[in-house]
Amino acid sequence: MQPVGTVICTDRGPTTSEFTFVVTSPEIVPVRRGQLVQLKTEDGLMLAVVQEVMMTNRFYYHAEAVKELERSGRMLSSIFPCDRWDMLIATAKPIGVLREEGFDKITFPPSPGEKVYLAERNVLSRFFGFDEENGLEIGFMRYHDVPVKLNMTRLLQKHLAILAMSGSGKSYLATVLLEEVLAREKSEGRIFTLVVDVHGEYTALSQYGGWELAYTVSVIKGSYVQFATPILTERQLAMFQPDMSPVQVRELGRLLSEVRKAREDSYSLSDVISFLEGDEKVNPRTKEALLGWLYELDETQLFGVDENPHLPDVAKPGRAVVLDLSDILSLRKKQMIVAYILQRLFDLRRRSLIPPSLVILEEAHQFCPEAKQELALSKSVIEAIAREGRKFHFSLCLISQRPVRLATSVLSQANTHIILRVTNPNDLKAIELSSEMITRETLGMIADLPVGEALIVGSAVNAPLFIKVRRKKASSSIYEETMEEAAKRFEAGSTHQPA
Ligand SMILES: Nc1ncnc2c1ncn2[C@@H]1O[C@H](COP(=O)(O)OP(=O)(O)O)[C@@H](O)[C@H]1O
Ligand SMILES: [Mg+2]
């Protein structure tokens, strides 16, 4: 292996926090800002990130001489062999040393004269903690062509958050993640995935994702969803009507047990309402209030006798369900659907009736907002999963372009954050606060990220890591159509989504 350069002495180092090296043959082994290099030290193999690359040439040091010569019509380069004196000097920041036991903090600087090499794949892989055999390959390391294969447990078990401004590639990354999860073999451990798709962006996966995805992904429209009233307790019903009083909830409980007996577990909400209308025992004022709450719930047309879709049947290993909420306009109804389905899946998972699962929650701030005054019917369920899901292998992938508006009680439980481009100072602040691993320096780099590049911090990796998200295998969704394509499709009268 050819070295990139050699460590030199400067006024500032080498120290444990910075060293400088001269690039020996840039035409053969070039060096770029952001690249990782390795070199031997007393403590073991040191890994460092290139912070700056400086070009210098001593012939151009004296402004006066350069000016006079150039004014006289002669080029400096025609007199002296200047270009042979171009010099590349790079500064690098050590990030760890590799020992037998793994990576460790740096306690000793590198020696002047030490040869510097580009970091090798196996060193990088060990340093960041990739899972070469069984990991989810969501992208590759910039400048290194090293695939980023994240261990599924480390990435998902303690929940994941994908945060960035809109248009920066969050949904794209989630699709890549979904592809990776669905591509797992039975022997590697397969999970079930639910995508809560607020804009109908993932629906094309089942049609245009190639036959593998068409087989594994099914789309369920929000308007098709129906709750099984008989499995709902009074508390769960009260979750949809948070202003119900404790007395009303208690009465509802009594009523439900009577209906249950009389109807042998086969009833809808309108049956509960008829029972209540004929009930003489209940206090008239409580009855009136309760009827009001129940009528309002029944108007949503979500409460049936049976469950649609029957969740134990759709939540299978290696499969995904896209819950397309784009046809539901009311936020209240969207939250109710999400609350019901998540609660039900979590319950099934706790009883080991469905496989370990992942819920990809788009627009997470709509479903678990931070602000107390916002409507939040699904918040308590999501909080419960955020707190306890880990024990039952029930994971959340929260996606949001407004991390400030996302409940901190939930976001703080997400142990891995993948951050794409964010420029809003308030959102940057929220991101900085939500993760101890993010330094000022890194924060600045987040604002400069191009679309499709991301920073991973937290339990999935041993150290913060910048990646380029890989290309997805599925073809594009309707949201990636150009304006020209959409216009042509409109005139052609096609309502179909593009391939
Ligand atoms: N990794 C990537 N590679 C190529 N194109 C990407 C990548 N990430 C995002 N894009 C493109 O950028 C656009 C916005 O991505 P999207 O995932 O919809 O953003 P977001 O969900 O953050 O609003 C899309 O047109 C998508 O094709
Ligand atoms: Mg999106």
Residue stretches low in confidence (pLDDT < 50, at least 5 long) are none
CATH topology annotation of the largest domain: Rossmann fold
Strand order of the largest sheet: 9-8-20-19-18-10-17-16-11-15-12
Radius of gyration: 29 Å
Percentage of helical residues? 25-40%
Architecture of the largest domain, according to CATH?
3-Layer(aba) Sandwich
Q: How far do the termini sit from each other?
A: 46 Å
Major sheet characteristics: 11 strands, mixed
What is the overall silhouette? Answer: elongated
Number of strands: 20
Describe this structure as you would to a colleague.
This protein is of the alpha/beta class. The chain folds into three domains: 5-119, no CATH class; 148-225 and 308-491, P-loop containing nucleotide triphosphate hydrolases (Rossmann fold), CATH 3.40.50.300; 228-303, no CATH class. Helices cover 34% and strands 22% of the residues. The chain is built from 19 helices and 20 strands. It has helices spanning 63-71, 76-79, 121-128, 152-157, 170-182, 204-208, 210-216, 234-240, 246-263, 269-277, 284-299, 311-314, 331-350, 364-367, 379-388, 408-411, 425-434, 440-447, 483-491; strands spanning 5-8, 19-23, 36-41, 44-56, 87-99, 102-104, 115-118, 136-141, 147-150, 160-163, 192-197, 217-221, 227-228, 303-304, 320-324, 357-361, 394-400, 416-419, 453-458, 465-469. The strands form three sheets. An eleven-stranded mixed sheet has the order 9-8-20-19-18-10-17-16-11-15-12. A six-stranded antiparallel beta barrel has the order 1-2-5-4-3-7. Strands 13-14 form a two-stranded parallel ribbon. The radius of gyration is 29 Å and the shape is elongated. The mean pLDDT is 90. Bound molecules: adenosine-5'-diphosphate (ADP) and magnesium ion. Residues 170-171 line the site of magnesium ion.
